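Page 42, continued from yesterday. The earlier attempt failed because a stray header line got pasted into the input along with the sequence. Redoing it now with the clean sequence only.
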Amino acid sequence: MLLELIVTPLVLGFLLIAALGHVLLTAAIYQCLRGDDVGGRGQKAAARGGAGCLAGVVGLIAAAPLTQS
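This time it went through. Structure tokens are written below.
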């Protein structure tokens, strides 16, 4: 009984953080695609001389640490 009271909020917190991460990632990708849709690379990316913010999102995903179960 005590173990369930400790584990349940931890699991729910983890699921909430994972869901929030997915929402933020989806919003970032959508924003990048919407900004890059106007004129190819987008005005912000062209001003910076970068490859666009979608490349930055992909870089963040690639840099994320992988965990093994």
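Notes: The radius of gyration is 18 Å.
Reminder to self: strip header lines before submitting.
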